[in-house]
Each structure stands twice: as C-alpha cells, then as structure tokens.
Amino acid sequence: MAKIRADFNDTIGNTPLIKLKRASEITGCTILGKAEFLNPGGSVKDRAALAIITDAEDKGLLKPGGVIVEGTAGNTGIGLALVANARGYRTVIVMPETQSQEKKDMLRLVGADLRLVPALPYANPGNYVRYSETLAKELAANEPAGVLWANQFDNTANRMGHYRTTGPEIWEQTDGKVDAFTCAVGTGGTLAGIGLALKERNKDIRIVLADPMGSALYNYYANGELKAEGTSITEGIGQGRITQNLVGAPIDGQVQVTDEEALPVIFDLIKEEGLVVGGSSGINIMAAIKVARDLGPGHTVVTVLCDYGTRYQSKLFNPAFLREKNLPVPEWLA
Ligand code: PMP
C-alpha cells in the first residue's frame, strides 16, 4: 500500500478485524468484528457511498457540479457528502427527523442540504426514501449539471461495493477460516455483498440475517411472510420490504435480536474492551453470539461494527432517554 493516500476517499475500506473478547469467551468461538466505524465518515456506509458515486461516474450519470440526492437514516448521507465534497458535487439529504441529532449535526457540518421529514412507512409517498426520489426529479429541472438519485436501497452498486471490498477483506483477514457471517440489514448491501463474496470462496460459510425488532425480514426469511413485530431504538437497520440489494442474497438462516439483548453488549464493550459502537453493532454482536452458540465451540463467526457510538450520545448513551424507553442504564452513566 502506498504510504501517501491520493485523497481521503482513498482511506475508505481496509478496516481491521477485531477479536471481541467477551463474546468469544462466552461462546468458546472466535467472534470477530469488522471495524467499519474507522471509515472516514465513521460508518460502514462510506463504502456504499463511494461505490454508488464511482458507479454513477463510470456510467456518465454524474457531471462536475452535479447534485446527489438521497434518502438516508444519516450514515449514507454522511458518506455521500464527504465523497461529493472531495469530487466537486453537492448533496441534498432527506432524513427522518427521528434519527440522532449527532448525524444531523454532522450532515450540516459537511455542508449537505439537509431536509428532515416525518418518519412515515414506505407505503406513504412522504416516506424519506420515496420523497428523496420525488425531490431528485423536481431538482433535475433546474440543475444543468444533473441530479443523481443515489437510491442506496435498490441500486445494486451498493452491494457490489461490499462484494468487491468488504467480503474479500474478511476472507483474507481470516485466511479463509470463517464459518459464519452475520449482520443486520438496512439496505441489505452489506449482508448481500459480503455473503456473495464469501459464498463464492466457500459455499459452506453460513450467512445469517440479524434482525432487530420492528423489522419484517426475520419472518420473511423464516416463513415467507413480510411481517414485523415490536420496535427498536437502533438506527439504520430493519426493513419492511425486499430491496433490490437483498434479491438473491445467499441467506442460510436468521436470528432476531431485541434491544434488551443488544444494549448490555455494547455497554460491556465500552467498559471491558474500550470499544464504543452504535446500536446496530450491538444487534450484530448479539446475533453473532447466537450463531456461535448454534454452531458450537471452536468456530469463527464474523460480524460488522457499523458505526461509532458517539453518533448516538444523545440517545443510546443518554440515561434520561434510556429510562424513558424502559431500557437498562449503564451504572457509570446513571
Ligand atoms: N448500521 C447502521 C448504523 C447503518 O446506518 C446502516 C445503513 N443504513 C446499517 C447498519 C445497514 O447496512 P446496509 O444498508 O448495508 O444493510
């Protein structure tokens, strides 16, 4: 690797794979977390942002000065804005107002034109994803350099980014000694892209969906019914439909994880392993523990540490918020 990077985007990817001590100890397995929070924008979504923008450039869909429009829980917007700034594009980001203040602040900091909308189901045209598509069409009339709707959910450039980078990195970092991979789905890009890359190298690697409450995917993969129950305070994960990024994903099994199970995991990680990650990472690690228990001792299970915990300081790590939701409060925050 060159000692000097061509630019900041050049540091996206090639993240470390970290052994999770407690999760490994309690299962007798090796549980590894891909440290995606170390990407420049602080999340796994930098990879999708870079892949989508590069793909659009290759297809001639983005011209200098062009505008990128996207509906996002925040992380994809942050990744898009960073890459766009470095490459001379502007960003218009549509986000449900329920997402963390830290992500909104970061988007404003990097100069994205942030449009907050009410959190509405996908069936409603005002839903953040659907509104972002409408907005992209409206803006196109007055943007001579053109508008790209990034469309992370159904644009498979997203999963291809993981297929080309994250999956092969995991294979190389484990010397191919990986028995299972699990992660939660927002768009499905991470799970499908890594799943496809690993299966291509060893078809016996088990690919398992990790699903939070409030998502319809667990039931879909278990019994064909897109049905959701419960809720979760995690952000960026859970899905009510089969996105194009999920179509054909090689999924062998599914586990459901509650916030009550996931939160103690991330609190313990802070106190015992010095690792501060967000809610979706907690869901992923708890899912990896369940998969490891299923496989039995001696196996290697890989998951994703999607983003850094400070992104949720006002929620996940805020005692007042946790108490209001009847969730456990770590003793050093109480
Ligand atoms: N975790 C977080 C914090 C996210 O923002 C996202 C993306 N929305 C994911 C996990 C899920 O990744 P993917 O979209 O690739 O399924």
TrEMBL record:
Enzyme class: transferase
UniProt GO molecular function: cysteine synthase activity
InterPro entries attached to this UniProt entry: Cys_Synth/Cystath_Beta-Synth, P-phosphate_BS, TrpB-like_PALP, TrpB-like_PALP_sf
UniProt GO BP: cysteine biosynthetic process from serine
PROSITE patterns named among the record's database cross-references: CYS_SYNTHASE (PS00901)
UniProt keyword annotation of Transit peptide present: yes
Pfam family name, one: PALP
Domain Tryptophan synthase beta chain-like PALP: 10-307
Pathway(s) where this gene product acts: Amino-acid biosynthesis
Coiled-coil annotated residue ranges, if any: none
Keywords: Amino-acid biosynthesis, Pyridoxal phosphate, Transferase, Transit peptide
Cofactor(s) the record lists: pyridoxal 5'-phosphate
EC number(s) recorded for this UniProt protein: 2.5.1.47
Protein name per Swiss-Prot or TrEMBL: Cysteine synthase A, O-acetylserine sulfhydrolase A subunit
